[in-house]
Design a protein that fits this description.
Layout (H helix, E strand, L loop, with lengths): L6 H7 L3 E5 L7 E4 H8 L5 H7 L11 E3 L24
Antiparallel strand pairs: 1-2, 1-3
């Protein structure tokens, strides 16, 4: 049985977005989960999605996803940190 988190679980645990970070270019992006679910489906595993993602700046995948910190992170999603290709999902 595979207990790896999927996009549907992440959506239920967050305000609808996650951080993609650890890019070689050192940027951090706010990723709307609706964009990932639309592309990969709600059952897609976070790790599989992470490996498919690429930074718009450096072209590399992120090293990790991080859930927003309740009370510390903006709610809703910080639009200035959303990749341009995903802004329509915000």
């Amino acid at each position: 049985m595979d207990d790896a988190p999927d996009l549907a679980n992440a959506l239920g645990s967050t305000g609808g977005w996650i951080w993609a970070n650890g890019w070689p270019c050192r940027c951090a992006k706010a990723i709307p989960l609706a964009a990932l679910i639309a592309r990969y489906g709600p059952a897609a595993k976070l790790e599989a999605v992470r490996l498919k993602m690429r930074c718009e700046t450096c072209g590399k995948p992120p090293s990790s996803f991080t859930l927003p910190s309740p009370g510390k992170e903006p709610d809703p999603i910080p639009l200035d940190r959303v990749p341009s290709s995903m802004r329509r999902y915000c």
